Amino acid sequence: MAEKKTALVISAHAADFVWRCGGAIALHAAMGYEVTVVCLSFGERGESAKLWKVPGMTLERVKAARRAESEKAAKALGVHKLICFDLGDYPLRMTDENKDRLVDVIRDVQPSFMLSHSQYDPYNTDHMYATQIALETRMIAQAWGHNPGQKVLGAPQLYLFEPHQTEQMGWKPDVFLDISDVWEKKRAAIECMEGQEHLWEFYTRVAQNRANHFQRNSGGQSGGRATKYAEGFQSVFPRTVDEL
Q1: Closest CA to 70 of 190, 180, 224
Q2: In this structure, what DSSP letter does residue 5 have?
């Protein structure tokens, strides 16, 4: 029996996994991967301005709306399991108990690879905090002395998905993924995030621009693969290969 293929996304807020790696999620789900998404918060305080402009809006109503949006988007992308930690945002903070819960998720999923945010983001410290937590919990999940008896984690690559303003984040992609075949799924998921409609076209343009980079790096005009939509990622750890 073939070993189950899995992946894990650690998203600071409810919409981050959609904008930044929705194509990777949909593409790998179509390949048979079970993709688990952990949303550490709903982004209810800092990333829901459109909802807060509605008279009489409350925190619980915003959270409910964001949960519904993320669930609908996850379904559109083919997410295997969406886990909402509901830790609050602006700022996002995690206790040791929260971290242990995430370690349990990582060990349960046993991901072939993980995805999270850029390691630096001066505009939104929740994002870089989420990646700090991803690295910390990945390390803990590898430790044989943490909860002995659980299956320890191997060494999955952590890919950092594209931040909003790359030149300010020190993010440098070294992997481009063609998501043309699943673009309609990503666009459908994007349109589920009604609280941030102002980003729909922005992230469509990002995917089109990265498609240009995919074609250039796959051979350029002399033989590169024509691509309409792509996503970029930065790998944290060295990759072990037998051939290039």
Answers
A1: 190
A2: P
